[in-house]
User: What shape does this take?
Amino acid sequence: MTSPGRFRVTIVHPCVGRFRGMKGYMMSWQMEPLPAAVLAALLPADVERRFYDDRMEPIPFDEPTDLVLISVETYTAKRAYQIASEYRRRGVAVVMGGFHATLCADEVASHCESIVIGEAEGVLAELIDDHRHGRPQAVYRAKDRPRLPPTDPDRSIFRGKRYLPLRLIEFSRGCRFRCDFCAIQSYYSATHTHRSVARVVEEVRRTCTGRELVFFIDDNLTSSLDDAKELMRALIPLRIRWVSQSAINVAFDDEALELMRRSGCQGILIGLESLVPDSLREMNKGFNLMRGGPRAALANLRRHGLRVYGTFVFGYDSDTPDTFAAAVRFAREEGMFIAAFNHITPFPGTPLYERLRGEGRMLLDPWWLDDRYRYGMVPFQPARMTPEELQRACSRARREFYSWSSIARRSLHRVNYRDPGMWLNYWLINAMHHRDTEGRDGLPLGDEGWTGTLLESARAEHVTVSV
Assistant: This one.
């Protein structure tokens, strides 16, 4: 309920889920939620703001507030609806946005007073003004891709919270590739935009001490290689250490690799996805086979002293039980700093989801709301194995890669030990993954101990997704 005094906004970051009575949370998931800081920075100066991170603190639902903002991802949707119900039961209006709100607008709209379709920068000021004056709209739709945040994230909301020692910075959003399984390309319609290099450099200067590791959270930092190179040239004098995410094509651009090294890049996440050519073509990532494929790409990255976080996905129709052992063996031989071995997840709005649904192969739909679903489960029918076999094979691959013997062997690759500080990070990060590997499987979506009832709104208006 709107108060007569200063308008109060509460930003909440929901967790994926938790077991009944669960106390701690997976350390590897405890990074600063940068979107929350972006929202805080975009609020009008006279708005009182608070922030709560559901992963690490209880949410004070009875604390007076006028409006709640929640960014929803598919994995956090169930918990977001629980949180929204607690506030709405107390008469507080809730606004939801984020990837899932755009890709599943009808569903999300039934759990809040207002929904944001697309990116919030272009509509948040209007939304706050409408709610402040008691004339909220049900739908706020971004009409165009906005210029990326006109102001830096308000990181003051993170004070007192114990996040991983990474400084998250955003340069760009989106990716020009159209990978079959990727919700990013669905949300951004395979487009890519970036902030001005000067603004990013100034943010780095002001917020980074040089001791922490900077993580450029871009979906694909090098989606536009020319823009990425401009950024890297500007970063060289700052003498920072940074990591980010990229497609494999960057490994075949020597100028880009040299600029990465000179600007302080310590490692890069590369979506290798599969060593099976037919699977790569199924997922629309045949470009991963370019110029000698993954092995040639990793050799080029190592030659420039760049460590690799390689990601693999399994479950496409060409995959067999032998696919997993080959991927683990490859990742060990190539001395990957860390690696991910996951089954494909059919996120709503992706070509993968629509295809599996059309073929009648979805076993839980929507899986993200099904009480039977647990993190790590396979919610579809694979072609050459059972869902349980696929799940167990992924878990086994992670256990083998993060076994102490594997960690020790990979630590001896020169690219991993050449820098003493990063070698220490190597052991800390791999030990964290060793511990968290089993802790994630079986995690319920939403809070298992929550005893409330979801409040849903019957909407006469049909929300049509259009970004």
In short: The CA atoms of residues 222 and 228 lie 5 Å apart. The mean pLDDT is 91. The longest strand covers residues 265-273. The first helix runs from residue 34 to 42.
